[in-house]
Design goal:
388 residues; three-stranded antiparallel sheet; globular; SET domain-containing protein; SET_dom; ASHR2-like; SET_dom_sf
């Protein structure tokens, strides 16, 4: 279920397509969107590779007395409680899914044995076709998202694999075809968000615990200096909606301004940002920051920041994006002589100082008495006082 409290609205922007813009003035730290996934699936192909619940994706201990396995596919799927198991068996982990996982684990394909990406893509397709059976409206929502299908060797292989591991009569009801499989793969690549394992400074990369497709959050476009960032609290013990994501604005935003996220850590250098955006999302970024940094020498580009490889699969992009630097630097904070680095203030105020983190800081939600002065990192979760 999505809830934006009237904060944002969908708009069409020239040369960009669909986007979310502020429908009223927004206060720093305000939660502008709470979104629940219409599809979420494991980034670890089999439960033996995972240490989290197959439904809510909280971290679990396989030896915990509350941990239960799936009655239909045994240890291929584990749940942190009987409640998660019960919900999952009627939604995301139906007999259709169990049968496919059993066959997939026994397939013995050399490609699947050595290619983690293909295995996870196969897991996505099983989940997507299951969604078509249990919730046709949500399946149609996924098909309505951005993403241009490409019928290539990978999609043909995956289509053949799914036809061999999934129940054929059920697939026949869905208009199953290589075109539909290719379309689903494109929607997933352009729109999925990674639900990340907790930050660990001893690891170079944060692992992705699960991927989710969120119906409203998929409309956020990218900016290399975002005015919002998203938070998830997968290991929260408060309720069964811990796969929800929350998007908060970094600073005050006027009505009518586009709200943008960064699809990866903001400290990645210009050349790497452009490469990843082109390869993963199919566009060249011409935001204000990129326009400035495109004129720098290679040495200056390298000094822009270290690539933190904290990869978060984000949402779709409908084209090139306009920057939002003006909001983050006006008010006379940045010296006029610093024209070659106009986004310095962004890094000073919104870049997490935790070693090897690379996260973005956003104020905690404002209270009735005004904005919060406490900043929260969306990667490591550390709290710090706002420094002006």
């Amino acid at each position: 279920m999505s809830d934006d409290n009237g904060s944002v609205k969908l708009a069409v922007i020239e040369n960009k397509g669909r986007a979310l813009i502020s429908s009223r003035p927004l206060m720093a730290g305000e939660i502008i969107l709470k979104d629940s996934p219409i599809l979420v699936y494991s980034a670890a192909p089999l439960a033996s590779d995972a240490n989290f619940c197959s439904h809510c994706f909280r971290k679990i201990s396989p030896h915990s007395p509350a941990t239960v396995s799936c009655p239909n596919c045994s240890s291929l799927s584990l749940f942190c409680s009987s409640q998660c198991q019960s919900i999952s068996l009627s939604t995301s982990h139906t007999p259709f899914v169990c049968q496919a996982l059993i066959r997939l684990s026994a397939a013995g394909s050399p490609i699947l044995s050595h290619d983690h990406i293909r295995h996870v893509q196969a897991r996505f397709l099983v989940s997507a076709y299951n969604l078509a059976l249990v919730s046709p409206p949500n399946f149609q929502t996924i098909l309505s998202l951005q993403g241009k299908p490409l019928i290539d060797d990978a999609s043909i292989f995956l289509h053949s694999l799914i036809s061999s591991v999934c129940d054929s009569p059920n697939l026949g009801q869905l208009g199953f075809s290589v075109e539909l499989t290719s379309a689903l793969l494109a929607k997933d690549e352009m729109n999925s968000f990674g639900l990340m394992a907790p930050f660990n400074p001893d690891n170079k990369e944060r692992s992705v615990r699960a991927y989710g497709i969120y119906p409203r959050a998929s409309f956020f476009n990218h900016d290399c200096l975002p005015n919002a960032c998203r938070f998830d609290y997968v290991d929260s013990a408060s309720n069964l909606t811990n796969t929800d994501i929350f998007v908060r604005v970094l600073h005050d935003v006027p009505a009518g301004r586009e709200i943008c996220l960064s699809y990866f850590p903001v400290n990645i250098k210009y050349s790497e940002r452009q490469k990843r955006l082109k390869e993963d999302y199919g566009f060249t970024c011409v935001c204000d920051r990129c326009n400035v940094e495109s004129t720098w020498s290679d040495h200056e580009d390298e000094m822009d920041g270290e690539d933190d490889d904290d990869d978060e699969d984000m949402d779709e992009d409908d084209g090139d994006v306009d920057g939002d630097v003006e909001e983050t630097v006006n008010g006379g904070v940045v010296d006029e002589e610093n024209d070659d680095f106009p986004h310095a203030y962004f890094f000073f105020k919104y870049m997490c100082g935790t070693e090897k983190c690379g996260g973005t800081l956003a104020p905690l939600p404002p209270s009735d008495v005004g904005p919060s002065t406490t900043m929260e990192c969306h990667v490591c979760g550390n709290l710090s006082k706002c420094e002006d």
